[in-house]
Amino acid sequence: MSTKRFGTAIPILPSRSMDEQLDFYQALGFEVTYRQAKPNLYACVRHSIVELHFFVLKQLNPANSYSMCYVHIPDVDAVYKEFSENLKKAYRKIPTKGFPRISKPSNLMEDRRFHIIDPAGNRLLIGTKHAAPRLIVEETSKFASAFETSYRLMYAKDEPAAAAKVLDLVLPKAEEASASLRYRAYVLRADIAVSMDERAIVNTFVQEADRMSLSDTVPGDATEEYEKLKELRAYLEDRDNC
Fold first, then answer.
1. What's the confidence (pLDDT) of residue 217?
2. Model-level pTM?
3. Is 86 part of a structural domain of the chain?
4. Which residues fall in a coiled-coil region (predicted)?
5. N- or C-end of the chain: fewer Cβ atoms within 10 A?
6. Domain count of the chain?
């Protein structure tokens, strides 16, 4: 009987500044295991979930970076909690916009994941696979298709502007969708607006979702969105206090 042996893949990612790059990963909780100055700048960091190597590419524009790596882990929420708490200690806040930033965990069809985008624009997709694929939406309609596309753009691709554009095309006809899907769409649109710091839009769709909550038209399969709505209200309260 043959025994399969698997190797270990170690991503080698670009960085604009090695100091900037290492400072960020140390803030996350990574350990610097190697650093080289000559003949070229090179460094390695390690965490229990992954090892990463970096080289310097001074002309790199983080906004145009296509470098990414998927990291499969057993407990995505525990790792997110660790990283977000470490970043808050280092930066006095959790960076959610620009470079670097971290997104909150979200459920997709294949996994539950969050993203880390480092100072160079490299993207780490950190996730835990579901035991079985989960449908984002079970309905079949133009509205449902737009919702699913917008959802993936927001949470799988981290492209809120594109997600907003897709969802805004069908929201004027939201009354044609089921109560569950309509509620989820309002919460999704508000969450997209948070990532773009569009407070007025957040407020509009939080109010729409709240109206459905007050009228008891929110079905039990939207519990995840109900919890996210609490976070959206907190965002509005924080902005009001600024």
1. 58
2. 0.85
3. yes
4. none
5. N
6. 2
| Residue 28 covered by a domain | yes
In terms of domains, do 124 and 146 share one? no
Q: Does residue 74 fall inside a structural domain?
A: yes
Q: What's the pLDDT score for residue 54?
A: 98
Pick the last residue of a domain from 105, 129, 153. 129
Question: For the chain, where are the E strands, in sequence order?
Answer: 12-15, 31-36, 42-47, 50-56, 68-72, 101-102, 106-107, 111-117, 123-129
Per-residue model confidence as pLDDT tens digits over 179-208? 889 999 999 999 999 999 899 999 999 999
Measured CA to CA, the distance from residue 177 to residue 89 in angstroms comes to 43
Both tokens of residue 126? 């950190």
What Å distances lie between residue 142 and 59, 149, 202, CA to CA?
Answer: 43, 11, 24
Name the average pLDDT for the chain. 91
Last residue within a domain, chosen from 107, 129, 151: 129
Question: Which letter does DSSP use for residue 98 in this model?
Answer: S
